[in-house]
Amino acid sequence: MAKGRGRPRSFLARLAGNTLIGLLGNSIQRVLTFIVTMVLTRGLGEESFGVYSYVTAYIFLFGFAADLGIERVVTREVARRPSDAGVLLGSALTVKLVLSLLATAAAIATAFALGLEGTTLTCVIVAAIGLPMSIEHVFRGFFQSRYQAGYTFLTTMPATLWFLAAAVAVVVWRLPLYWLFALGLVSAPFMVVGLFWVARFRMHLTFQVRGTTMVHLLRDAAELGGFMALFLLSMRLDQILLFHLRGDADLALYAAGVRLGEALGIIPEAAVVTLFPLLASSEHRAPERFRETYRLGFKYLSATGVFMALALTVMRHDVVRILYGAEFAAAATPTALLGWNTCFAYLGVIHMSLFVAQSRQRALLGVSAIALSSAVALDLLLIPTWGASGAALAALLANVVGFACWVALRPTRPYMLTALAESWRAALAAAMVAAVVWALALSTTAAMVALLLLYPPLLWGLGGATWGDVHLVRRLFREEIPSNPPAA
Q: What's the CA gap between 239 and 366, in Å, rounded?
């Protein structure tokens, strides 16, 4: 059991602390990244910022090829077999290094093949050199499996702050753009040393490499990486289609709603830091804890997602005006539709983590392909007539198709039926609040007050939140499961 300041720290306290740290760390990272964007947009000018945006997108593609889904695979395997952590981490780092070296060579070769030159080519080369040192994803998977997400942020946050300082220096002193990527490289070795120091000397982990483990990790990471590639493509392809079918004005309206939806993803992202390793470790060793973890996850994340969606619907005009200005008024409807899309995102955090924990990468790949195909077909059908609102509706309907696929598959059907059983109360509470707002024709402010005052008690009255859940969590998570329980 973990200890803190001389006395035992309960497993439940570790889980709560890990989730809180995940939320806080992700929030700070996003804020710092946004500040970097503000500094560069205001200081570089359109041409140089365009080069920067191109290089970061270009390197992201090759970086993704080097990462695949190795973070999730490491988290799952270490949570299942904590005694093999040294072999798993050492093998994963070797796989990551080999893939990164190949990605570096491919990125530079492709840059020459594309005829890139001048500052753009120099920036690509410098950024590509840093790929082999981007090993934080492997360590993040390990730290998540130990419910110690704080170590990830402790070792990577200085690099984020350094990059912000580098951006300010490049803008203030008007340095060539490649200096930004070069200065970013300076912090990489220190981050790598910090990660190894924490794992080796703080956690006493001995790194080992095993060929069979490497092959296993690479196979699972490749399958999971295919799913993640389709997922990322589904988040961007609709914007490309919207641009070509309706132009940049409609894309701007749609992107405004997309960015807001991504910002609201901080909550489920923080939850998955704890939920995923918990599901992976308890499926076979503690079946009751496993069942109650995903059931309660469905229950409370759906309640949160529905509240967010209803709030965005009620306040869509004011939210858009406050965040983006009066010229984005037409983004209100797409924003509201994408708000309801967040409900699927919140539920998706649970069932995607659940299926990865069960090694259902191929099913994830197949369902993602169907959902993406449906999204493209719906985009082509709805965008020409409805523009940004059509793209938002297409995204929502594509998620419905994906959810239906999971219900149709026999192995995953019980979990999705549980999701529906735990979500209907939140949906009914939201419908009742919406009915009151509509019947009384409430103003935006009054409608939001009604939502805040009515939704929680209605949810409680319908059984969407109970004290029994609190007692259940305390009982199930009071003590940690032994890593290697004795045979029955």
A: 23
Give dist(CA 372, CA 350) in Å, integer: 20
Quote the crossing angle between the two packed helices 85-113 and 70-80, to the nearest 10°. Answer: 170
Output the CA–CA distances (angstroms, integers) from residue 129 to 103, 106, 142, 177, in the order listed. Answer: 10, 11, 25, 16
- As a residue count, the chain comes to 488
What phi-psi label fits residue 138: left (phi over 0), alpha (psi between -120 and 50 degrees) or beta? alpha
The token pair at 232 is 């990322």
**412-438 confidence digits (pLDDT tens):** 999 999 999 999 999 999 999 999 999
pLDDT in tens, 13-33: 888 788 888 878 888 887 887
Q: Give me the residue label for tokens 């402790």.
A: 154
State how far the Cα of 45 lies from the Cα of 177, in Å rounded to an integer: 11
Contact by Cβ (8 Å): 326, 292 = no
Sorted by where each begins, the domain ranges of the chain are 7-209, 220-476
Beta-carbon contacts of residue 487 (< 8 Å; ≥ 6 apart):
none
Q: pTM of the predicted model, to two decimals?
A: 0.73
Is residue 85 helix, strand or coil? helix
The helix (run of H) or strand (run of E) holding residue 3 is strand 3-4
User: Helix 149-172 crosses helix 11-44 at what angle (to 10 degrees)?
Assistant: 10
- Measured at the CA of 143, the angle between CA 25 and CA 284, to 5 degrees, comes to 120
- Only one residue has tokens 């130990």, namely 146
